[in-house]
Fold each of these.
Amino acid sequence: MLSVNAETEIEEQIKKSRFLGFITPCQTESDAKSYLENLQKQHQAANHIVFAYKIKTEKGLVCRFYDDGEPSGTAGKPVFNYIEGNELINVLIVVVRYFGGIKLGAGGLTRAYGNTAKKVIEAADISEHIQYAQIKFTLDYSQFQMFEYQLEKHAGAMIDKQFSGQIVCLVKIPEVAAEKFLALFPGEKV
């Protein structure tokens, strides 16, 4: 699986219609909905705002696509097919269309939305998707320096830390390294 690292935007003209393609990373459906709301405010004059997303949640994969008034299956589905074909995860692709006066027909719409999705994917910064585990640790102060060293060595990151009698910290670490790290420092997956 692959992930998008940053938001990317492209624009193209197809038979006088203006197509804007957007791709952005999303960790939750709420992220996707928030991004869509912002785009709808920015592009109120657009004729269609088509989208597709695929997000991995604790309950499994959430996949959605939407044609926004275009003939069924000619807009959102072709965009989603490019997400699937490129093995993307935790991603939202939006195609905004400003109608230029020339009808494209079902085949033309499918090609236009699909090609816009393809081009925005090609323009995006994409890397291997890493699944992270969140683990909570309770440490003595004497362990903390070695803990931070090992955390960095295992490509983990500190999410939160609280200092009191002991140090309580929440970290994220690649799933593939989690068991090895837990062997070094006892913790609890959350």
Amino acid sequence: MKCPHCGYQESKVVDSRHSEDGTSIRRRRECLNCQKRFTTYETVESLPIIVVKRDNSRQAFDRNKIMNGMLRACEKRPVSMQELENAVNEIESVVQNSLEREITTEFIGEQVMEKLKALDEVAYVRFASVYRQFKDIHSFMQELNKILEEK
């Protein structure tokens, strides 16, 4: 860390404390050249994830959209908020840990369907019917038959 007083490159950490919100670490440093002290903050670098939609438009990743879609699919179903929160956290983790900076809605949709299938089959079918945009009853029945074959 470069000293803001003399520009020297070397310093030592005198004190470290977590910030009040827990998202950064405050460090008091002392320059090894001029012995003056200064403060630095260490935070996690978060690169924005861009979602590429079906019409090729792009927007920032928003976990709330995933949660809202899953809430609609699970309406009046025996799925707890904690289960949904855990599923959204897992999906967000997969997205953040992928090395891609641009993620398609198809990728996110498949992740959501995978989680919903494990939580509640009715919620899965509800979400899939909107997400896959079934054209007729036959394509809808094919999806239902796939679920029945897996059992």
Amino acid sequence: MIAANALGFRHPGQSAWLFRDLDFHLERGQTLALLGRNGRGKTTLLKCLAGLLTPVEGTIARDGAVGYVPQAFASPFPYSVFDVVLMGRARHVGLFSTPTAEDRARAREAIAEIGLDAFADRRIDTLSGGERQLALIARALAAQAEILLLDEPASALDFRNQAKLLALLRTLSRERGLTILMTTHDPTHALEIADRAVLLHGGGHAEEGAVADMCAEDRLTALYGLEMRRLEFDAGGRSAAGILPHYGAGYPRL
């Protein structure tokens, strides 16, 4: 479980709030998507929830271990994927102890679950951005995190691998009971796997609610400053929806 109460943040020395009076409550197994234009506070909010930044106002409650997966990761040392994932076991290993056979087994299991078996012995700095981010998700799983905070996990993935990632996140939330919060620039991803969504408009204004309500055309048009269209269609016998920008309606001013 993770909850925010009257949460607010602005950078030191600045009067403009990124978000303010933000409330939400997620139970075990629920997923929340954070949506908004660049610079509106998505990553900042995620870092507050991870404990990496301190909100100016409000409180955060966490019931469970948190795994934070940043958008970009660069290792200063030539660690293998296995080594990076094994680092997720650090909190289970004593101060002067070394990883046990169980720790190594947990790391292998997490790598297999993410589908990175073929990359286990590769240096992480030789992987693509999307592959590195998958390795960090595996590290969070090896740590036995109960709350996953993901910063644009699909941004460096092609369409097929985006679909695989969304399927994985759906499985982690619905079958393993992980609570997931993710930032994304694609509202369709939110519709596909999220239960709730936060719209960060900037200037202190934020909205939170059921994903179907938050991903309505009028709300997203206001959020992005560009006309957005929601398309309903049949996907293999189930009802599905996608959100697309209507570029033909004209381009906004820079």
Amino acid sequence: MTSRPLALLAVVATALALVACAPASAPPAADEPSAGQQDLDAQLRDAAWADDVDGAAELIARGADVNAKDDTQQSAYLIATSEGHLELLRLTLAHGARVDDKDSWNGTGLIRAAERGHGHVVGELLRAGIDRDHVNRIGYQAIHEAVIFGEDTPEYATTVRALIAGGVELDRPSGNEGRTPLQMAEDRGLDGLRTILAFARDAEVPADPDAALRAAARAGDADASAVALRAGAAIDVPDPESGRTPLQDAVSGGHDAVADLLVAMGADRG
């Protein structure tokens, strides 16, 4: 007959064995932001929707987080990209916006801006180093979105040219339809965007991108300007003879499409 001490030892041993075999408990969840922080962040998102730059700056100074998202995965930064709020975007980038952050469609701010035809936001994001060729949940890159949701308007023309100038891929088929951006433009009957994309596809890389950009700006050729920038042209290098920059040539010649592209891509307007 087992003695009481031996029986007790057996129970303890069994308990220890069960503990050893039990799965490790999950680590404690990360601390949720305080109610005060959540309120600040919500106010910042409201300011972003309203394009209230001064109000947003005040909220950020009080500690609001430009990356804090609501239940729909919207942050002040992502709102600025989709709504075309350029100064607000610059404010969020200056205060730690995660430039490659994603929305509920696994889309970047570049994809959101391209969909809406916000060419100047596209240029700002490209210069900030955003992932140019990220593919979202439905298989689109920014250049696909600019075409499939775009129209033959000056705004979408600048958007597509800015993407070309920024070096995005132009020939990857979309995930759903298996269509390149050029094929999408053809399918939709968007002759303006089709012409821009076909020019970029067929153009030779200029041997002297700076000279090519100056010539395109003087001639008012926005498509050639985009190709020159894609090839690495310096956007503000003045002409050795006239001393004028490409933007100054475009403005003096009344070439609005070239000027709009150059400003979108960061040309000095001073």
